[in-house]
Write a structure and sequence with these properties.
With 115 residues, the protein is mainly α. Helices cover 98% and strands 0% of the residues. The model has no long low-confidence stretch (mean pLDDT 93).
Length: 115
């Protein structure tokens, strides 16, 4: 009977150790679950911050694109004005050349009439 009691006691001890080990594993698993839950919450919060920052960047890009379109349109207008000025300058040069030729012809005629 003593051997049987000893065997029973050993089984109880082993059972207690298994239960204690299982309890320890459950506690470790719960701590890991809580840790992962916190990390997941942090990840969601960070994702929301990134989404807000991304939205801000998209707004800034849209503003820059609008500004570039305005600048592009202003440059087109300035280029048109510059081309008009160049055309007027060419007309002036042509008129000036024609005037100088007429002036020279008139001086020649007057010189020939005087002599």
């Amino acid at each position: 009977k003593t051997l049987q009691l000893e065997n029973s006691q050993n089984l109880l001890d082993k059972g207690s150790k298994v239960i204690a080990h299982e309890k320890s594993l459950r506690q470790a698993a719960e701590m890991e679950r809580q840790n992962m839950s916190e990390k997941l919450k942090e990840s969601f919060a960070q994702n929301e911050r990134f989404a807000a920052a991304n939205e801000t960047l998209q707004d800034m890009i849209s503003e820059m694109e609008s500004s570039l379109m305005l600048t592009k349109n202003e440059n087109k207008k300035l280029l048109k004005i510059l081309n008009e000025v160049r055309a007027a300058d060419k007309e002036r040069e042509a008129w000036n050349g024609s005037f100088q030729q007429q002036y020279s012809d008139t001086i020649e005629k007057l010189s020939s009439l005087l002599h």
